[in-house]
Amino acid sequence: MCVVALTAQENRSYDGYGNNLYNKTWGAANADMPRVSSINYEDGIQIENDAHLPSPRVISNSLFDQEEFIFDSQNLSDFIWVFGQFIDHDITLVENSSHEPIFLDIPENDKHFSPNAAIITARSEIK
User: Fold this and answer.
1) Which has the closest alpha carbon to 64: 2, 111, 121, 7?
2) What angle do CA 49, 53, 55 make, to 5 degrees?
3) C-alpha of 59 from chain center
4) Beta bridge mates, 124
5) pTM above 0.70, yes or no
6) Mind listing the pLDDT tens digit for each residue in 57-100?
7) Alpha-carbon gap, residue 101 to 122, rounded angstroms
8) What pairing do the DSSP bridges indicate for beta strands 96-105 and 118-124?
């Protein structure tokens, strides 16, 4: 077997096609993103089976609670991660199901949202 060593820069395309040398369509524009885990609904169809899990908002608040400035050793601004999110979300866009909203409860001690409110998000379309 002949192995050809290519660097990422030698094999990148703007639409993602061919970026994976062994599976040309993986990560390509307009390619479906396969589900890698089994479907696990409480009723086997659509009701979330997450009562035993912590709220996504509690996890988010715990991970990103920052009281003071955190110096970046490479002198990078927040623009770097925001741009990375933009690129990621632009490349990995998954269609949302407009008829199946998910309501995320707000914890009592949330600094930004009222505890009586909810964050509304949408399920991803299953293909």
Assistant:
1) 111
2) 105
3) 14
4) 96
5) no
6) 888 888 888 788 888 888 888 888 888 888 777 766 666 666 67
7) 4
8) antiparallel
